[in-house]
Predict the 3D structure of the following.
Amino acid sequence: MDNGIKILLSPPLAFLIFLCVSFIIYKSVGSLATKGKPSPGKLKTYTGGEDIPGAKIQFGYKSFFFIAVSFTMIEISTLVIATIQRGFSILGIFYLAMIFISILSLITWNTF
């Protein structure tokens, strides 16, 4: 390949070219769009025309940790089952049953 083509296909320069082309397309299409009239309703949350009062909501980490532990257990059990040797399939079934019981206990623990 010619050195000029190699320079044009280098990732940083290709990114800059793509960025410039995208900006030109953005500006040209943006000039064709109609301009809207400012109104206070545009800044509100859409709720079917109803006014909703604002409320401060604080999320806890309890549900995040529950999902993270469940996901980790499922991923590790998939890895263990995928790498189990022939002749040990009964142990794999027992392992899956124990994982199922563990996740069930997490679900019932999470409801309290």
Q: What stands out?
A: The helical segments are 3-8, 11-32, 62-82, 89-110.
